[in-house]
Write a structure and sequence with these properties.
Elements: E1 6-11, E2 14-23, E3 29-38, E4 41-49, E5 55-57, E6 63-68
Antiparallel strand pairs: 1-2, 1-6, 2-3, 3-4, 4-5, 5-6
């Protein structure tokens, strides 16, 4: 995953379309942008990937699942 990638973000059972607006070189840390409220985050959410490969919110350590957005939605 890299800056500019279109993604689907799933958090608290809700799935929304978004974009990676900032990514570290190794993709361990990401800043996600979306038009929704997810786990108390409005529009932006910083996440870190844990040793098990799951992204988690910086505030609350809540799991966030990120997948590439399907071509037909881009």
């Amino acid at each position: 995953m890299k800056t500019g990638d279109a993604v689907m973000i799933t958090c608290d059972g809700r799935c929304v379309s978004g974009e990676i607006v900032l990514a570290s070189d190794n993709a361990v840390s990401l800043m996600l942008r979306f038009e929704a409220m997810l786990h108390g985050h409005v529009g932006l959410m910083p996440v870190l990937r844990d040793p098990g490969g799951i992204y988690r919110t910086l505030i609350g350590d809540h799991p966030v699942f990120i997948e590439p957005r399907p071509e037909r939605m881009q």
